[in-house]
Write a structure and sequence with these properties.
Number of strands: 6
Number of domains: 2
CATH superfamily of the largest domain: Multidrug efflux transporter AcrB transmembrane domain
CATH class of the largest domain: Mainly Alpha
Distance between the termini: 58 Å
CATH architecture of the largest domain: Up-down Bundle
CATH topology of the largest domain: Multidrug efflux transporter AcrB transmembrane fold
Order of helices and strands: HEHEHEEHEHHEHHHH
Radius of gyration: 26 Å
Largest sheet: 4 strands, antiparallel
Number of helices: 10
Shape: elongated
Length: 320
């Protein structure tokens, strides 16, 4: 039985010759993502902004403006409504009650649920979550620290494991992957909560795994072909690892596709972030991270062994 090969063995694609186009696209995507996050912001979930979130499932898709007015009429504060997954499922976010009474939050949730049950017979409530403002601030701080520490430590590892050029290229590529993913959430207004932070950290892990495989092959070929032109050497290394990269990406995307279709609205944001991260991470590993090594001045010569003065090789030359 013949093995399935998504990439032929004799593939010889000139990735390096497209590096300037890739750098331009990378810069454009990064700037666009940063502008989107700065201008539109993120649709932060209750995990980060604090408050009460009630997820309601209606028999028929409600009119959001009418529903917002009905919730505001209860005097529970300004309600933020968003369709969650499907048009008949709505996420209702409310500020925390001003009362310090422990049962105030439960009364607020019951008041909203009772009123909507009367107005919309058959409505069901999938979940209700509460996060205080203090806890949400801690979650934002801890989430940002986790992401930045992960990126910094990974770049530091690449620096010490290989050469400083590898560390810089890894930092740039992973930074691009993260910004594009966050910009996607600013564009689509999907809810950004702790599940997405977990997805972002997973994307970092996938990206660095892909990059380390290519970097290892580049370093191995630098030892093997010490006089080869660096452009040809990087093309050779990327083409040699391309079957593994494509197969890994395709299998992960198939699994994520199943989660996107059958996982329901709760996993939709997480799955969308992961799928985008895999695609962007694969692109940056092939076109950005490896080709950036040339711009940073990496040469194969530093790995060539130089005979020490007065060593065996020098004495042999003098005897000859």
């Amino acid at each position: 039985m013949r093995l399935l090969k998504l990439v032929p063995d004799n593939t010889n694609i000139g990735f390096v010759r497209l590096r300037h186009w890739a750098f331009g696209l990378t810069m454009l995507l990064t700037i666009a993502a940063a502008v989107l996050v700065g201008v539109r912001g993120l649709n932060l979930g209750v995990d980060f902004v604090g408050g009460v979130m009630i997820e309601a499932h209606f028999k028929q898709p409600p009119v959001l403006d009418q529903l917002r007015g009905e919730v505001d009429h209860l005097g529970v504060g300004d309600a933020a409504l968003q369709q969650f997954g499907a048009a008949d499922t709505v996420s209702i976010r409310l500020p925390m009650p001003t009362s310090t009474d422990e049962g105030a939050t439960n009364r607020l949730v019951r008041a909203v649920q009772d009123d909507l049950s009367k107005r919309y017979p058959g409505v069901t409530f999938n979940r209700a979550e509460t996060v205080s403002g203090k806890v949400s601030g801690e979650l934002i701080r801890n989430g940002l620290i986790a992401v930045f520490v992960a990126v910094f430590m990974i770049a530091l590892f690449s620096w010490f494991r290989y050469e400083w050029q590898f560390g810089v290229s890894t930092f740039v590529a992973i930074g691009h992957d993260l910004l594009v993913t966050v910009g996607f959430f600013a564009l689509t207004r999907l809810e950004f909560d702790l599940n997405i932070v977990a997805a972002v950290l997973t994307i970092i892990g996938y990206s660095i795994n892909d990059k380390i495989v290519i970097d290892d092959r580049i370093r191995e070929n630098m030892r093997k072909y010490r006089q080869m032109d660096m452009r040809a050497l990087i093309d050779l290394s990327v083409n040699e690892t391309l079957p593994r990269t494509v197969m890994t990406s395709v299998t992960i995307l198939l699994a994520l596709g199943a989660m996107l279709v059958f996982g329901g609205p709760v996993l939709r944001g997480f799955t969308a972030a992961m799928m985008l991260g895999v695609i962007v991470g694969t692109y940056s590993s092939i076109y950005v991270s490896s080709s950036l090594l040339i711009s940073l001045g990496l040469k194969p010569q530093p790995f060539a062994a130089t005979p020490k003065k007065g060593g065996p090789s020098s004495r042999a030359e003098r005897v000859g």
